[in-house]
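Annex B. Sample input.
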Amino acid sequence: MNAWKRGWAALAIVLWTPALFGASSADLKKLYNPIVQRVADKHRVDPELIHAIIRAESDYDSFALSEKGAMGLMQLMPDTATQYGVRNVFDAAQNIEGGTKYLKDLIRLYNGKTKLVLAAYNAGQEAVKKYGGKIPPYQETRDYISRIMTRYNKAEVRSAHAVVKIRDASGRTVLTNDPELAGQKKDF
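Annex B, continued. Sample output.
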């Protein structure tokens, strides 16, 4: 990003900061909803789950910083942010993008079992692994799952690729959700 764009971004933050501190969670949810919807559609993750996690993690405070070092709206740890390509954890769009990509991977890893996905998001994949693929017995994690499940009461969550119609090598029209095949010529 060039200096001019960085300057405008800094000015926007300075001008918006007082308004953001006085805004309610509902107002902030509306503010961030276009980003959440775009990222949710892109990664095929339920936007309501993303919102529930943001609410539990930071209550929509894009500058949130935990005692353990998690940062931003979706409270990404530095290694997780780096792994998912987030350069500025306090940039709402980058944070939501990285957090949602991580969430999508957890959904796949735990076969869409919402409580295990949430346990891994909160306590880490290693904690879930340590306890034999079950929810770790940490009170903080159990409270976290309970808080989110009051807003997102679905036992399973799915992350799926869009189904597209393509022409295969022989010219036949095929419906697929395979992301590798979906990159071929689409038949609309």
